[in-house]
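Quick log. Single chain, no ligands specified.
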Amino acid sequence: MGRRLKKKVLFFSLFIIILVFMDYWLDQELNPHYPLQYSEVFHPKVNADVIIIGASHATHGINPKYLESEHLKVYNFSLNGAGPTFYLNWYNKIFRQYYRRPLYVIYVVHWGMFDEEFAQRKLEQDSSYFPFHFLLKEFRAIKTLKTLALNRFAFIRERKQLTHRLFGKHPEVYLLSRYYNGFIPYERKGNLEKEKNVKPRNSRAQIRAFEELLDDFEKNKIQVIFVVVPGYLPVRSASDISESMELIHKIAEKRGISFLDYETERKTSINTNPSLFSDWIHLNEKGSDVFSKLLKSDLEFLLKQKEAKEGAPPT
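-> predicted structure:
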């Protein structure tokens, strides 16, 4: 073997070793609830009667243990940044194929759910959580093939986090020890004093996907309940969210969907208590405990009313 070739082989070997090390190091999960939620949907253990879907405000805001009863199992499948286009794919490609049909879906809606900047998550970006047989099936879609493949490698998937992981601080914001059926507490000290001027831009694609998903639930005889998790009201303007909230209320009214809105119609002391929030959108563990207990009470009353009027949901 020539000297130049030996150098090339050595360089290539070192390069591969560095990539393998980087992939192992970057593959340390920063969102410990994601693999657990995907494990449940692909390999069910809880087999929930009621599922919760939504974005991060739902993941960290509703604890299923407070909604459960002896004969009613609940699982929170909410994922950070997940909007209607994500859940339309998730439901039809994964949930319907691998999970039992639930009696109810608690859809945690939000004034930012139709904005592409809030709802950035795409199903193919989660390919690292897919079992191999499902991944192979998804490879048939040419449009998403590149993203599916590249996101299996941590050094590509987490490349934007490299600088932060090397030089940033890493406080534990997700309390894995308190994880329960998809819920995980989110603990940080956010700025609850500065006013937020955020007006969402509603995407037609997200609205269309939302309507399609609701159609699918109806076809499969799954009852839907809309819930809005309380936000911290003193720092946001009601006018910024009015258009989005009116749209969600119109959809609920048109479809006859029950709606528990703790952001506008059902304001409580939670909305103005800074000790219950990690930031202006997310409840902390204490806040999620308080809200989940309130939600359980309101859901029990709502379901009693529905059963008296319509009868029990089909099993």
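The CA atoms of residues 84 and 210 lie 5 Å apart.
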